[in-house]
């Protein structure tokens, strides 16, 4: 039997036990973590606990079980270097490339943005410190700016800022067709079915309202294309891609929501999360009124 003991530091005061276990055991699924708690293989202060338990500073977390519960030591040194745009003691902004997921999944089980972040910060899997993480996602083949929290307090503040729209996220997209409007606010309801999102009627069960602001930047008549700036008011899965496809202006290179004939120039969607703006109301002092922008966007070079 293997036994892991961890004393909870102030970084994890009021932190969810399940998330803490995932931090200690990256290979655990949520279902397995639930099972470990139910079977009393996880104890707090030598007593059995519940899946909803919130940690308190000074708690002793004990994990019992087979060899599988040993802390996994990831060899992060093998990963490519993170492209950092900005960094301070609380937050980090990175430029994501194509063909990489933000979180661990079937496409990027080890080589993902979260692990590159840990490599950049020299994070120790065996430490009793909060695990830095990106607070939002971009699709596997979408490039652009990502925000990471470096400590628990900044994670709470950044998530609050997202919910209260204190962070403005803008994208650029090259779409098929000559867009007929200069500006528009798209308000449509989306429903996720399998691995694709569909535009549905507002009263559809499980559907969620998604809002995107769209602004025309330039027409490219020779290429039958338009360059757009988009601002996310809500942040639903594939929101921009589904919204533009519903208007019959699918993103160039998007095989899921459009049909791209020129796969050589557009092997993946021409979409980039190119700008971030932090409002003065955000609680993190170092980010107040700051703005970050990518000027070197791959698909603009093709025009």
From TrEMBL:
Keyword annotations of the record: Isomerase, RNA-binding
Keyword Aminoacyl-tRNA synthetase: no
GO biological process: enzyme-directed rRNA pseudouridine synthesis
Keyword Transmembrane helix among record annotations: no
Catalytic activity, as annotated: a uridine in RNA = a pseudouridine in RNA
GO molecular function: RNA binding; rRNA pseudouridine synthase activity
RNA-binding S4 domain mapped to chain residues: 15-75
PROSITE patterns per the UniProt record, alphabetical: PSI_RLU, S4
Pfam family, one: PseudoU_synth_2
Similarity section: Belongs to the pseudouridine synthase RluA family.
Name of the protein described by the UniProt record: RNA pseudouridylate synthase
Natural source organism: Candidatus Mycoplasma haematobovis
Source taxonomy: Bacteria, Bacillati, Mycoplasmatota, Mollicutes, Mycoplasmataceae
